[in-house]
Structure formats: C-alpha cells, structure tokens
Amino acid sequence: MIDLLTTHYNYVASILLFGIGLYVVMGSPNLVKKIIGMNIFQVGIFLFFVTTGYVDGGAPPVVGHGEETFVSPLPHVLILTAIVVGVSLTAVALALVIRIYDGYGSLDEDVIKEVQVDD
Amino acid sequence: MQLLLYGVLLTFVVFAALAVAFLRDILSAIIAFAGFSFGVAIVYILLRAPDVALTEAAVGAGVTTVLFLLAIVRTVRPGGDRLFERVAWGPAIIATGLVGVLLTTVRSLPTIGDPTSPVATSEITRYYLENAYPQTEVENVVTAILAAYRGFDTLGEAAVVLAAGLAVLVVLRKEVYV
Amino acid sequence: MSATDGSLSAYVESTIIMTTVRVVSPFVFTFGLFVMFHGAESAGGGFQGGAIVASSIIMLAFAFGIEPTREWLDDSVIRLLVGVGATTFVGIGIGALAFDGAFLEYAAYGISHGVKYGIELVELGIGAIVAGVIVSLFMNLAGGFNHDSGGDDA
Questions:
Q1: Mean pLDDT over residues C96-100, rounded?
Q2: What sequence ranges are listed for the domain MrpA C-terminal/MbhE (chain B) (predicted)?
Q3: Residue C99, number of CB atoms within 10 A of its CB
C-alpha cells in the first residue's frame, strides 16, 4: 500500500478528492456547499486526466525549442475546455440556488423539504 | 526531491478539500476552496501542463471563488458557534466505500511518468506531437489541437459557455425570453 | 449579510484594495491579452486569456463596487464582445466552405500561413466569448433575482 504513494501519488490524491467531493455533495445540507463539493469532485477528475499525460523528463508540449520528449498534449486540451465549461455550470447552479433562496427563504436542504411539505 | 514537493502539495490539496468539507462557516469553506484550487494549479505546473495551470488559477481560484462569494452575498451565510460541522455518517460511509473500491484499482494503472504508458505511446499523441508544427505552424501543440484538430469540439464548448450565459439570464429573469 | 433589496449591501470601500487594484489591474489585463495573442508560440490561448481578462474586470468590480463598474462597462458592450467572438469563430469555420474546403479547414483559404492565422483568429474569438460570458455571469449573479421584470406580466 505504501509503495502506491511513491508511484501513484496523484491517482491516490484524485481518488481521495472523489471521496471528499461525494461526501460534501451528499452530506452537507447547504446547497452552496454542495456545489463546492461538485467542484472538488471535478478537480479530482481533472487531476487524474492531466496525470495520465505526464511523462518523466518530458517538456511542456510547445515544440521547436530543442526538446526531445514531451508530455501528451491531448489530456491538457480536454481538461482546458472542461475547466471553462465547469465554471459556466457552477454559475448556472448558483443562479438556481439564488432562485431557490428567493422562493423558500433558506438554503438548508431539510428546511426546504419542510416548506415543500407544508405547501 | 520531486516526490517531496508532490507530497507537500498533495497533502495541502487534500487537507484544503477536507477543510471545505468540515468547516461550518460557508465563507471559510469558500476561502479554503480558493486555496485548494491554487494548490491544484501548482500541481499542474509540476505535471508540465502550463495551459491547464493558467486556466485553473484564473478560473478556479479567481472566478469560481468570486461567484461563490456573490452567491452567499445574495443569499445567507449560516453562522453558528461551532467551527466544524458534525460528520454525516451515512454519506461518510458511502464516500469511504467509493474511495476503498477505487483504491484497489490504482495498482493496475501505469506508474506516474512511465514513458511506456498507453497515453504516452499512443498513436494519437505521437501524431499530434510530430505533425502539429509542420501542418499548422503553431508551436504550442495544445493550441493546435484545440483550434485545428479538435475545432468542432471547441465550437461545442463555446456553445456550452454561451448557453450557460443565457441560462443564467433566464433563471434570474434578467431578460424575459418566454 | 442580508441583501434582499436590489442594492449590494456587502460592498465596503477599502483604500488598500482600491489602490492595489488600480496598480495591478492594468498589468493583469495586459497579461491576459498577451496570453490570448501569444497562444500559438507559448502556453496560452483563448480560454486562458479570456479567463484572465475577465478576472481583471471582476477585480475592478470588487474594488470599486459593482454598480459603478456596470455603468462604466455597459451590458451592450459585453453583448457585442460575445457576439463578435461567436461570429468570428463560426464565420471562419463557414468561410472555409466558400473556398471549397471543409468546415474549419483553414488551409482552404489558400493564403500563406493561413492555418496559423486561422487558429489565432479562432483563439481570439474564443477569448472574446469566454471573457464576455464570464463577466456577464458575474454581473448577473451580482444583480440577484429580479422580481420586477418577472415573466408574469410579459
């Protein structure tokens, strides 16, 4: 198990981030915090992808400066666009949260459920 | 040395994420999230992904944090006398289970930085690295793939970003389209 | 922290933040433009540059208040920016069809270094889209939910 930490450290970290993200999404009653949890889960996936492209001694994928080995550029492209799409998604989710607060006067999951039952 | 650096950064990142999970005050959690994003951006630099690091630092630590701050300004910031939240045991067990199951699969992944890993030796990686400059005269292969080889994909991403902008307008009724 | 009325009550004027932002933001803005224009030769490109440009404007709004920034940078300017960006991207894509190429086939334009210029223009378009949309997301979330222009009376 310990040898995994010296050879697969990033994968272990991204799996821990999956766990923490899932916990926040499920366990936190606050809606804003759930969205933060979603972001943490997302970052775990990004870290996983970028790590797969890494090559020991590789240069950043900018060619024509004399280097021989490069890290794989494809994961970088995929993650680059995913980050920007992620922030757009976060903004839409937060807009929905603002609407929910306007309707229910609370961001607490349990309070919102009670208000719904009362209606 | 490299390993030590990774160790420090990844420990920081994971503990910042744990702080987000257990801090009761939302403002503190958001600030912890900003630190978390910045730590991840530095990890990307170590992984030789400057483009991703630049975006993560500007978007994750900057824009996303500000959007969260705006959201709590517009709603509430639940306070309380306790510093940490109580552990929700059900979700904690499920999350631990997920981590446990996934950790058993880690061993089958290639070692980090392995030059013979499937991604590093794949046909597509070699094709992009060898042909990007001769075909597009663009030195940054990431830019070449983004705008040329995967131009359609990028058009789709731009459409998603535009759609998100419109969706916020509609949800907050800044403009009435329907 | 209650902001149920239309104004943003959380804004506090701070000399330190205002001075810092006044000094730093022109450099951040220029760096963002550099990253956007220099995406072909070094790390950078539209997504990164757009995000940095947007964050420099968000920084201004943070220091000087959101309403003054909204007055200074009108909504129509942001809409124009996003529109021009999207038109550039799609226009270059469709323009290639007119030269008997495929969609987004830059080589079809037949000018020397055409592929490179095509890529850079598309990157600039992406940068405009990303910068504009992020700023407008910020402005709209800051405005909060607007009761007055509800859909009921429309």
A1: 87
A2: 120-174
A3: 13
Q: Which residues of C touch B72 (CB under 8 A)?
A: 1
Contacts of B69 (CB under 8 A, 6+ apart): B27, B30
**Do A50 and B52 count as a contact with CB atoms less than 8 A apart?**
yes
Q: What is the pLDDT of residue C153?
A: 38
- In chain B, residues with a C-beta closer than 8 Å to the C-beta of A104 are none
Average pLDDT over residues C103-126: 87
ipTM: 0.91
Q: pLDDT tens-digit profile of C16-54?
A: 888 999 999 999 999 999 999 888 888 888 889 999 999
Whether B140 and C47 lie within 8 Å, measured CB to CB: no
Q: Does A74 touch chain C (CB under 8 A)?
A: no
Query: B11 and B65 share a domain?
Result: yes
pTM of the model: 0.90
- Tally the domains of chain A: 1
Helix (H, G, I), strand (E, B) or coil at A56: coil
CATH number of the domain residue B70 falls in:
1.20.120.1200
Sign of CA dihedral A52, A58, A60, A62: negative
Which chains are adjacent to chain A, needing at least 3 Cβ pairs under 8 Å?
B, C
